[in-house]
Amino acid sequence: KQEVTQIPAALSVPEGENLVLNCSFTDSAIYNLQWFRQDPGKGLTSLLLIQSSQREQTSGRLNASLDKSSGRSTLYIAASQPGDSATYLCAVRKGAQKLVFGQGTRLTINP
Amino acid sequence: EAEVAQSPRYKITEKSQAVAFWCDPISGHATLYWYRQILGQGPELLVQFQDESVVDDSQLPKDRFSAERLKGVDSTLKIQPAELGDSAMYLCASSPDLTGGGYEQYFGPGTRLTVT
């Protein structure tokens, strides 16, 4: 059974810092990995999708990497801003099966 | 930009009552998912549809939950009777893929259910 773990559970940093969020998964036979953002009480917004054949994806100040063999992904946020404060979730998918989510990292950027 | 629509956004119901949620996926998306997210946790899949057929409902509490997607477009998730432990966010998502897992899942805004 696939298990996804996100560390840390919560993170608070000053504005302007670069930061890394971690995601690990137990079954490396994945189809893709997706990073989401969730604001309090809201739905999920997809940030980046990495196919199993890819090593990384970039969107603006966000960069996600994937090391399938070691079961790890990182989300790098450059020059953090207060508007980046949210919960970040990673999820892995195997074939046509469901997404399996981690519990998320709650990020707070302090002005 | 096309979005997944859900209603209602918020629902408060008493224990033992029936409650229903509605989802309209992005036009043309064959796959529809219902997830439940308990506060502080990641979403967990309840049911997955491919067109009008159920692909995975292994985590759906079938004694009280039911889901349908009669015409392969919009979907309804029902709980009867509701229990205190059903309080959660119910998220609907859709994806355009038919057979593979290569596409993104797009999520709606969710329905926040509170059972009293």
Could you walk me through the main structural features you see in this protein, from its secondary elements to its overall organization?
The complex is a heterodimer of chains A (111) and B (116). With 111 residues, chain A is an all-beta fold. Chain A has no helices and 11 strands. Chain A has strands spanning 4-7, 10-14, 19-25, 32-38, 44-51, 56-59, 62-67, 72-77, 86-93, 99-101, 105-110. In chain A, the strands form 2 sheets. In chain A, strands 2, 4, 5, 9, 10 and 11 form a 6-stranded mixed sheet that branches. The radius of gyration of chain A is 13 Å and the shape is globular. Chain B has strands at 5-7, 10-13, 19-24, 31-37, 44-50, 53-56, 65-68, 75-79, 88-95, 106-107, 111-115. In chain B, a hairpin with a 2-residue loop joins strand 5 (44-50) and strand 6. Chain B starts with a strand and ends with a strand. The interface between A and B is medium-sized, with 26 and 29 residues.
Task: Give the structure's gist in a few sentences.
By secondary structure, chain A is mainly β.
Structural class of chain A: mainly beta
User: Which strand-content bin applies to the residues of chain A?
Assistant: over 45%
**Largest beta sheet of chain B, briefly?**
7 strands, mixed
The biggest beta sheet of chain A is recorded as: 6 strands, mixed
* Beginning-to-end CA distance, first to last residue of chain B: 37 Å
Structural class of chain B: mainly beta
Using only CA atoms, what is the Rg of chain B?
Answer: 13 Å
Number of separate helices of chain A = 0
Which blocks of ≥5 consecutive residues of chain B have pLDDT under 50? Answer: none
Beta-strand residue percentage of chain B: over 45%
**What is the residue-averaged pLDDT of chain B?**
92
Low-confidence stretches of chain A: none
Q: With helices defined by DSSP (H or I, 4 residues minimum), what is the helix count of chain B? A: 0
Quaternary organisation of the protein chains: heterodimer
The largest inter-chain interface, given as chain pair and residues per side, is: A-B, 26 and 29 residues
Q: What series of H and E elements makes up the topology of chain A?
A: EEEEEEEEEEE
Give helix % range of chain A. under 10%
Shape of chain B: globular
